[in-house]
Amino acid sequence: MSVRRSRRNRPLGCLLGLWLAAPAGMLAAQEFQTLKGHGGPIMGIAVSPDGVVATASFDNSVGRWNGGPPQWLEGHDAAVTAIAYGPEGLLVSGGDDFAVRTWGETPQILGKHEGKVACVAVAPSGDRIASGSWDGSIRLWPLDGGAEESLPDPGAGVNDVAFSADGRFLFAATNGGDLLRYDLANGGTPMPLARHGFGINRLVLGEGWVAYGAVDGQTRVIDAETGDEIADFTLERRPILAMARHAETNQIAVGDGQGYIMMLDTADWRIARDFRATREGPVWALAFSPDGTVIHAGGLDDVVYAWPVSALGEFDPAMGQERSFLRDAETMPNGERQFMRKCSICHDVSPGPSRKAGPTLHGLFGRRAGTVPGYLYSPTLDGSDIVWTAETVNALFDEGPDHYIPGSKMPMQVIAAASDRDDLIRYLETATTGE
């Protein structure tokens, strides 16, 4: 573990051993909760000032949760990877379909990048949106109908963006390891604040500082003007995948690839709590409740989990148990194992409608491709002549979807060994005919 402070900070004192016990009655007032309904992993979470939770999922959908059944916002043609609230409930999302969308009375596509949209942010004034893409572009989208603006080249794919409180600056984190500050009042000229050496995945802003998390597991806080280090909270867990800040309670939450949520106190720059949230798998998304008493988290499961912050030490790991592909591989026959690894995130084998990113495989064999009722297919499969048989399923995984059905939504999946393909087909022949 590496935790150090710059000359600007006081000594740290006790770190990982510091667990704040919940006051009597706290668990009754703030219980552990889950939000269930998505059909794929949770990629992003945002919470509005009035407590409405919005979720972005691999199932191509945005969910909006307000104390009852979720409202499903459909329109993305691929996984939804970024989500943010702005003033007056403005909700924005971005996805693997390269699109930036707003969800209001009249949902609309603001425009598209040429690659995955990894991040979106709304200016404090609510007059424009920033988005960053793995295509190496940062764009500003005015909400008054004006033309979009492209900021100067950041030099690499963009993982995160955030506006300063006054809206003058936009901070950007890149795959190349740069943390940049764009001066929007002076033509968007970028200034490098940090050159980390490994990709920077997430950032959050405070009063005069920027905190960021990187691929190599580093969690650092630097001065927003000079780039000087303020604190380092690296715990040798990698990569850092999620960050959230609650200003009024002086909290930052940091999620990593090993399933931990580290809670930082920004009043005196210390680690307040360090909580293992998952049994297996990463923490991909974090967001605080409006009052800062609850932390919402998402990862490989189809579920959003919410813990009372003051009682984190009272809970066992909850995430990482819903996904069947996290089961021990030795407990499954090879055909089922191939399905869990290659297909189960997007497809179900049970009858009826599915919230997953792909259509149900129930009744697959003998069915013409692109014909499951209610599923929005790509033009490639809508009206396709392919009929799913042992031979066509074998060809799909032998050649890969990008060659066998180019232009479809299916991600690149190849099963190289003929014996593994045979086992998968035998499993599907049985699993897709059951009730």
Ordered list of secondary-structure elements with their pairings:
Layout: E1 2-5, H1 26-29, E2 33-36, E3 42-47, E4 53-57, E5 61-65, E6 71-74, E7 80-85, E8 91-95, E9 99-103, E10 108-112, E11 117-122, E12 128-133, E13 138-142, E14 149-150, E15 158-163, E16 169-174, E17 178-183, E18 189-195, E19 200-205, E20 209-214, E21 219-223, E22 229-234, E23 240-246, E24 251-256, E25 260-265, E26 270-276, E27 283-288, E28 294-299, E29 303-308, H2 334-342, H3 390-399, H4 401-404, H5 418-431
Antiparallel strand pairs: 1-22, 2-29, 3-4, 4-5, 5-6, 7-8, 8-9, 9-10, 11-12, 12-13, 13-14, 15-16, 16-17, 17-18, 19-20, 20-21, 21-22, 23-24, 24-25, 25-26, 27-28, 28-29
Domain Cytochrome c: 330-432
Keywords: Electron transport, Heme, Iron, Metal-binding, Signal, Transport, WD repeat
Pfam family, one: WD40
What's this model, at a glance?
This protein has 435 residues and is mainly β. The chain has 5 helices and 29 strands.
Account of the 3D structure:
It is globular, with a radius of gyration of 23 Å. Helix content is 9%, strand content 37%. The strands form seven sheets. Strands 1-22-21-20-19 form a five-stranded antiparallel beta sheet, with no helix packed on it. Strands 2-29-28-27 form a four-stranded antiparallel beta sheet, with no helix packed on it. The chain has five helices and 29 strands. Helix 2 packs across helix 5 and helix 3 (390-399) packs across helix 5. By secondary structure, it is mainly beta. A hairpin with a 3-residue loop joins strand 16 and strand 17. WD repeats lie at residues 35-66, 73-103, 110-151, 276-307. Residues 1-28 form the signal peptide. This is C-type cytochrome. It comes from Tropicimonas aquimaris. Keywords: Electron transport, Heme, Iron, Metal-binding, Signal, Transport, WD repeat.
